[in-house]
Amino acid sequence: PEVLRPLYESSKVLAQRTTIAALRYIRQIAQETSGEVVYGLGRQPAVLRTFSQRLSRGFNDAINGFNDDGWSLLNCDDGGDDVIVAVSSAKNVTGASNNISMIGGVLCAKASMLLQNVPAAVLVRFLREHRSEWADFNVDAYSAASLKNS
User: Fold this and answer.
1) What end-to-end distance do the CA atoms of the chain give, in Å?
2) pLDDT tens-digit profile of 63-107?
């Protein structure tokens, strides 16, 4: 079975879906503001929306701060912005109890992929089976063993 597959849609379909979702979102906010919709049992969608926006803003701030912390963004020329990879230029990561030497390391890989009905165990097994395709070949044996056991 196909576990991971690219998400490709025509620009027309994508524009229609985005527009419809935006209009529904605006209608929902208007109804909440006017009091047309009353939520029971402690549901507060405005609070959840604010929390979600803060999480997103915090993640974006963290991504934008990578360069200040020694991370470099790699350019993946695949015809678009489908993949973003950040690599550390730091040579040593020092732990509290031991020193782990890792050369480089991918911190963030964002891809336009669609996961449909994929349990976490299947995804983890897939990543372990295809580790040689995404893992750093210079990682030492201790680090590889700790990654394998996690």
Assistant:
1) 25
2) 666 666 666 766 655 555 445 566 665 544 454 444 444 445 555
Q: What is the dihedral of CA 131, 135, 137, 140, to 10 degrees?
A: -100
How far, CA to CA in Å, does 10 sit from each of 15, 16, 34, 62?
Answer: 9, 10, 36, 31
Q: What are the structure tokens assigned to 96, written together?
A: 């509290």
Amino acid at residue number 123 = L
Task: Assign 3-state DSSP to the chain and report helix, strand, coil percentages, each to 5.
Answer: 45, 15, 35
pTM: 0.28
Pair type for strands 106-111 and 83-88: antiparallel
Question: 3-state DSSP call for residue 49?
Answer: helix
SS3 17: helix
| CA triple 82-88-89, angle to 5 deg | 130
What letter represents residue 39's amino acid? Y
Contacts of 35 (CB under 8 A, 6+ apart): none
* Tens digit of each residue's pLDDT (9 = 90 or more) over 78-87: 555 445 566 6
Over the range 124-141, which residues count as b (16 or more CB within 10 Å of their CB) and which as e? eeeeeeeeeeebeeebee
Q: Cα(91)–Cα(94) distance, rounded to whole angstroms?
A: 10
